[in-house]
Structure formats: structure tokens, C-alpha cells
Amino acid sequence: MSTFSGLNTALSALYAQRRALDVTGQNIANVNTEGYSRQRVELSPVENVTEPARYSLSAGVGDGVRITGVTRLHNEFMTNRTRSEHGLNEYLQAQKTVYANVEQALAEPSDNGLQAQFSDYWNAWSDVANRPGDASARTQLLSRANTVAGTMRTTRANLGELYTATREQLTADVDVVNQTTAGIADLNTRIALAKVADMPTNELSDKRDTLILRLSELTGATARPKKDGSTDVLLAGAVLVQGDTVRALQAVGSTTVDGRTIAPPQVQFADSGGVAAIASGRIASRLEALNTTVPDAVQGLDDVAGQLITSVNAQHAQGWDITVVPPATTPTPVQGGDFFSGTDAADIGVAIADPTKVAASSTATNPFQGDNATLLANLAKDPAGADVQYRNFVVDIGISAQTVNRRADAQQVIADDVTAAEQAESGVSLDEEMTNMLQFQRAYEAAAKVISVVDSTLDSLINMKR
Fold first, then answer.
1. Where are the domains of the chain?
2. DSSP 185-215
3. How high is the pLDDT of residue 55?
4. I need a labelling partner for 417 at 20 to 30 A (CA). Which of 261, 329, 354, 400 fits?
């Protein structure tokens, strides 16, 4: 190797180590950047001439080092696993929130909840049975009945508001999906062009992976990389993004819980109107809440209200009240009418305003008996009655909520572990980067020393001629 060849070798080392230091600095600068994957300079020796020819001779010593590229440390398998686990985690966390909101609307168990009000209501019938001629007992009964009916209407309205709010969140999430897919398509175009021009695409790829992860959290979407550098995004096998082409989604269906049977909420492809199969992610949870969780809670409460109205009205109609018809001053008993009005929890009310209209007696000959009131109070013990039905309804909601909570907590741990594993492989470690920086710095200093030695040698050779 000639002296000047040694200078070239050392110069190539200076270039390579300086580039390695630049990349290390880039990693350190982005240690807290979301979605950033650390990069590594790939070095390769400059090979000797291995095919002898007249004008291509080699001294058998290498001609230095060259940079073959800057690699983005990225594991596609780990990334796909992270997307899948994050999609399921977002689904369960959203379900956990829905059940928490349903339980909040029911407010059970509570000293002021509907169950406690039921108890007070049945006890009021017992008081009327014990004191059928006491106007205060009858007034208290009507007051507690109004409280039960009012709480049912309020709870039903709160569940309806929860449904409407969830429907609005579905629309907002679908809008985010459309914005995200447009961003992915734009990055696909830029990356493909950069690949053709042999330009670096690491940072663009990081941005695209961040968007795809967000899309997976919303819809459970999967990705399929292509040779040209672009990535296709699939939704249950249907193409959502292909190169620079995007299929937009739209949320359709009723915005009120009462209209869900006519127009159930769905997410469709805007171009064809076909239903988008979304089985995971936050949007899947929204759809389940709109089509199953909240409607089931509403239906359960409506069934309780309907049972209460039917059973109380049926028994009340068997009794007689203590109505006084002027000019008479003594009761002229009238057979009981409906105690409750309405058909379900949305419109339940108390049909009686006058305490004398409470049909506490089972006979017209003695309207001051309380035997019919006793039968009404005993409805609380009916295995098929509203009281038992409501308790079973609340227990079913509680069991479902507990199951979802346990699954959500377990999945959160899994998602965190998978994210940590991916970060350990592709994330920036300051300890590692500091070690690399010292290594590249020493290599740069050594290469500079080689140049200095060669310079001294040349100086000595030139001075020998004098």
C-alpha cells in the first residue's frame, strides 16, 4: 500500500466515524420522540481487486471503509403484535368505560338508588294496609310512587344520553380514521418516490408506523408492506389503504336509542355502502355499545317498568277506594283504576293524584280495610315481580361489568409488555448511545492519528532527499 493510499484509507475512516457520530446524535435527539426507531450506520470494508488485470493490480491490503446505509432498527413481527394487542386493549378499555357509565346511570348499590326506592314504595303500601283511613299514609304512598317513577324516567333518559354521546363519539372516531388513512397514503407516496431516488426514508417510515398503530387502536386494522416501500392497510381482509388510494369510511344509523331498531348504527365504506367489518379497536367497542350494551340496559329497565305497571295496576283494579261523592259526606267506594300510567321507563308516571283514589280495600262494603294494600305490598316478594326482576337486572349488569374490567386489566398488562418489548428492540437507549458515541469518537481519533503519522512519515521522506 502506498503512502497516499494510507491517507485515503484514513480519510474514509474519518468520514465513516463522523457519520456514525451524526446518527448517534440523531438517536439521542429523538429519545423522547413518539414512534421513533433508532438507527444504525452500516459499515463495510472497501474490497480489494480480486480479478487480476493489467491495469487493476492490488497490494493485497484493503482501501478503507465505506458506508453502505443507515438501517432503521425495526422488527415487523413485533410491530404487528403491538398493533394487534393495542387494538384489543383499546376495545376492552372502551367497553370498561361504557359499563362504568351504565353503572353510574343506575347508581346501584346506593341508599338513594332505585332499589332503595322500591323498598320504600312497598313499605308505603304496608303502611296503608295498617292504616287504610290515614290520609298521610296514602299521601306518602303517592309521594314514594312518584319518586320511583321519576327515578325510572331519569335513569332511562341518562341511558339515552349515553347512547347519543356514544353515537357522536363513533362519528368522531370515523373522522379520525379517514384523516389517518389519508396521512398513510400521503406517506406511502413520499416513501415510494424517495426509494426510487435512493433517498433515506427512515423518519417517514416511523411516522407511517405511528399512524398505522393509531389506526389499529381505532379499528384493529392490519398492515402489509410492499416491495416499493409502501404499505397496504387492511380491515378484516378488505383494503382500506393501497398505495396512495384510500377508501373512506362513514358512520350511519340512528343517533337515539329508540331509533336503533329501525336504523342500527354501522360503519360503512363510503364508496360502496358495504359494511366495514370491525372486530377490534375503539370503534368496535362503540358499535357494541350502541347495538348491544346500552340497548340491553334500556330494555332491561323498560321491562322492569312494564312489569311494575302491569302488576300494580292489575292488583289495584281489584280494590276499592274511599272516594267521597258530594253532597255525601261518607265514602262512596269506587273500584280502583290504574295506579301507574305509561308503558315503560320512558313514560311511567303515577295516574293518581288524589289519595282517596288509592284502592286499599278488597271490598266495597268496608272501604277502610287494607287487605288489597297488603296484597300490593306482597308484590315485592313475587319471584316474577318488578322488584326481583330489577335486582336480577342490576346483578347481570354488574357481572358483565366485572368480567370486562378483569379482561381490560389483564389486556392492559399484555399491551404494556408488548410495547416494552418493542421499545427494547427499536427504541433509543441512552446508555447504549453513550457507549456508541465513545466508540465512534475513539475510532475517529485513531483515524486522525493515522493521518498524522502518515504526514510525519512523508515529511521524513521528503527531508531525506535534502
1. 3-72+427-464, 82-414
2. HHHHHHHHHHHHTT---HHHHHHHHHHHHHH
3. 57
4. 400
